Amino acid sequence: MKRRRRTPKTSRRMNRRDFLKLGGTSLAGAALLGASGCGGEEPQNGMANITFSFGPDDSGTLEALVENFNREFEGEIQVEYRQFSRLTDEYFDEITGGIEDGSVDVIGGDVVWTAEFAENGWIEDITNRMYRDYPLTVPDVFLGAAITSCSYDNRLWGTPWFSDAGLLYYRADLLEEAGFDAPPETWDELSEMATQIRDGNDIRFGFVFQGDEYEGGVVNGCEYVWNAGGQVLTGTTSVPSTGTPPSLSPNAVAINSPNAVRGLEIQRSLVADGVSPEEVASYREEDSSDAFLAGDAVFMRGWPFMYALADEEGSEIEAGQIGVAPLPTAAADGRSFSCLGGWNMLINSASENKDAAWEFIKFATSNESQRTRALEGAFLPTLEELYEDNEILESVPVIELGRDIIENNTRTRPVTPFYSEISATLAASFNESLRGEVEPEEAVEDLQEDLEGIVRRN
Questions:
Q1: Which of 157, 250, 335, 340 has its C-alpha lying 20 to 30 A from 359's C-alpha?
Q2: Which residue numbers in the chain have pLDDT < 70?
Q3: Which residues pair with 108 in a beta bridge?
Q4: Running DSSP on this structure, what letter comes out for residue 7?
Q5: Torsion angles phi and psi, residue 62, rounded to 5
Q6: Rounded to an integer, what distance in angstroms lies between the CA atom of residue 395 and that of residue 377?
Q7: Which class for 44: exposed (0-12), middle (13-18), buried (19 or more C-beta within 10 A)?
Q8: Is 180 exposed, middle or buried (0-12, 13-18, 19+ CB in 10 A)?
């Protein structure tokens, strides 16, 4: 008997397009405008006021960036940094409230939002601005993966701000003490090392990662599938001419395979075998980084910015005790893949101050601004030239590894205008498999059917 699948959490809410059509914008916008300032205001005394939205920034570099911009453009443009949720899913819901009424001008947007936002007409086509204001052809200025994340339908809809890739963090000091001369290359090796070091040092956890039913859980689940040789969606990539952004069309569902099953089996086995705690099924970024930086875990799957947290007050371990490596694979001869993450800067198509918004984007994504955030916050730059900066590479070693992974070992989540629906479906199934509520084989069979239905409907 076929089980009755749990409805993804996000599907119990009104979808974003219906929310905006039915006037939800005015309600959400009214709540969000409780903060001071409002994007889209008429210039006062010749000055344009714009609003930039993003989540909290623990490094302090974002507040400093806004202050520096306001100081440099005093009397011309003033930017208000409006802080939304740090959780990507919640932030998505919040930002849709400020899009159509123009109360937000510049959007810090997840790399997976480009196609959906562009298709719905929520963001401005900035192709001409990008090619006009950068000295080289755009693909030569930015990392290839970063500029691709801003592309949809052979147009550019955003400017790459900072990039991300999933990395394996490990306690280098403990591995050395235990006699291991290198980090694990396979999940079996990680399990062996984690168990030995955890038990020998009275540490709570062997390995922590992000497994909750949210976007981070989708990312982690995809990485387990990819690193076992499986895929989720495949499709075609077209580049009409040299220097033109590519157009991606992931429209073939390929998740129902033995390799994908193997990947989810490995993820579940880490919990079943006690290498990871059962709580990882509800872990998000902050939960895993808190455990690792408190000295409670030997290994952690994390993003590059987490490296900078080791030197903050409250961390029990220092950056010098941490090693970083590519994610393990199912087999010794397997290729390691990380999920491409990161954030782009987008212009709200309803903004009344698009020129001012563009000035802020250029400032925020400039060499100087990205360099500062790399050195002080371990944010991976999107500009090619900064990966030749010796001070950055020496001060933040995670960046050099991150660049190599982004250029050679990342995969993107599906670039599609209906990604939200796909994401919610993946999040629910991956989480059910991780919790042991369904077998991995059944999970991928159901996902094949469900994802094919989404592609067909759209």
A1: 340
A2: 1-45, 135-139, 235-251
A3: 345
A4: P
A5: -75, -40
A6: 11
A7: exposed
A8: middle
- Top-level CATH class of 15-164+341-411? alpha beta
Query: Fold match between 15-164+341-411 and 167-339+416-457?
Result: yes
Instruction: Give the tokens for residue 95.
Output: 């930002």
Return the structure tokens found at 206: 């062997």
Q: Please tell me whether residue 394 adopts helix, strand or coil conformation.
A: helix
CA-to-CA distance for 54 and 63, rounded, in angstroms?
A: 11
Instruction: State the CATH architecture for 167-339+416-457.
Output: 3-Layer(aba) Sandwich (3.40)
Domain boundaries, the chain: 15-164+341-411, 167-339+416-457
Locate 225 and state its tokens: 């599938």
- pTM recorded for the entire structure: 0.83
Measure Cα distances from 74 to 18, 65, 67, 170, 365 in Å: 40, 14, 10, 45, 19
Look up residue 27 and give its two tokens: 């309600």
Which residues touch 70 (CB under 8 Å, ≥6 apart)?
Answer: 77, 78, 79
Q: What is the pLDDT of residue 144?
A: 85
Tens of pLDDT, residue by residue over 76-107, are 999 999 999 888 878 988 888 778 777 899 99
What would the two tokens of residue 299 be?
A: 């290994």
Tens-place pLDDT, residues 244-302: 555 555 568 899 999 999 999 999 999 999 999 999 999 999 999 999 999 999 999 99
Can you read off the two tokens belonging to residue 275? 């290498």
Tokens 């997840």 -> residue:
110
Direct distance between the N- and C-terminal alpha carbons of the chain, in angstroms, rounded to an integer: 29
Whose CA is closest to 145, among 436, 441, 412?
412
